[in-house]
Design a protein that fits this description.
Helix content: 25-40%
Largest sheet: 8 strands, parallel, barrel
Number of strands: 8
Number of helices: 6
Distance between the termini: 46 Å
Strand content: 15-25%
Strand order of the largest sheet: 1-2-3-4-5-6-7-8
Shape: globular
Length: about 280
């Protein structure tokens, strides 16, 4: 199998989001005094913010034993993306299977990488990669890269997901548009996960993660590229503050290695998890 493991066409798909704020204006006329009927205050249930456990999403696009060994030795919850050769590859690799098994035996999830060409790749090829991951490595959890953000492509992804889940309804999926997509993507499956930020951290602004994402917080993940250790800690804190599912930060644009501050990253997530109120 080929072990050319650079991330496939590392492109950031741009999208422009706008929202309209409706303001109701009220005007009065005449000299009569309006009759105001008292309206009781609505009863607002006291629903406390309950933070969930943070996971670290790791793009393990690597054929290096030391990388997989570090992941297997990490106790912080991980979701590890396996990428044999821009997908599952065409042949089973015993060494790769051993690494995947070690990481899963340590209690971590492993996702199989499949690219979708922003909704343009032949869906039969996408489904074939999904089945190949399962056949070759027993993986039933998938990372669909190069995901579209457009509402017009929802039918493409709905068809793929429905066909894949029809084979096995325990399958799980994460889409990676790298930016917030149309809201319809969050309802494609009840447990669909979406990587809503995958960019160099110097591009992050207060508008990068719009407030409406909080409705789908448990489905959201962020990935900070070209991030310093301080940036990593900021990304982790944002993940906790927004109650997102997890994050990843690395000090390179993309690499087959873990970030230089990997131990600190795992410890940061572990510390935030240890502070959870049961």
């Amino acid at each position: 199998m080929s072990h050319t493991l650079d991330r496939r066409d590392f492109l950031i798909q741009a999208s422009v989001w706008s929202s309209t704020l409706g303001l109701a204006a009220c005007g009065g006329g005449g000299s009569s005094t309006p009759v105001v009927t008292p309206v009781p205050e609505p009863v607002v249930p006291d629903v406390p913010f309950v933070p969930s456990e943070i996971n670290i999403l790791v793009p393990a696009y690597s054929y290096k034993a030391k990388v997989w060994e570090k992941l297997a030795d990490t106790t912080t919850p991980l979701v590890v993306i396996a990428n044999a050769s821009n997908g599952p590859g065409s042949r089973w690799d015993a060494q790769y299977q051993e690494w995947i098994d070690r990481v899963r035996d340590a209690g971590h999830r492993v996702k199989g990488y499949v690219y979708t060409g922003y909704g343009k790749r032949n869906s039969a090829l996408v489904l074939a990669d999904i089945e190949a991951w399962n056949t070759l490595y027993g993986i039933n959890d998938f990372f669909l890269d190069e995901a579209s953000v457009a509402a017009s492509d929802l039918a493409y992804y709905r068809s793929i997901l429905n066909q894949a889940v029809a084979v096995d309804d325990s399958r799980r999926f994460m889409l990676n548009p790298g930016t917030p997509p149309d809201k319809g993507y969050f309802t494609l499956l009840s447990d669909i996960e979406i990587l809503v930020y995958e960019k160099p951290w110097y591009n992050y602004t207060s508008n990068s993660l719009p407030g409406w994402l909080d409705t789908f917080a448990s489905q959201c993940w962020i990935m900070a590229l070209v991030a310093s250790e301080a940036d990593m800690q900021t990304a982790a804190k944002i993940t906790r503050a927004r109650n997102f599912a997890g994050f990843f930060a690395t000090d390179t644009e993309f690499s087959v290695n873990l970030p230089s501050y990997w131990a600190s990253e795992a410890a940061t997530a572990a510390s935030l998890n240890s502070a959870l109120t049961v």
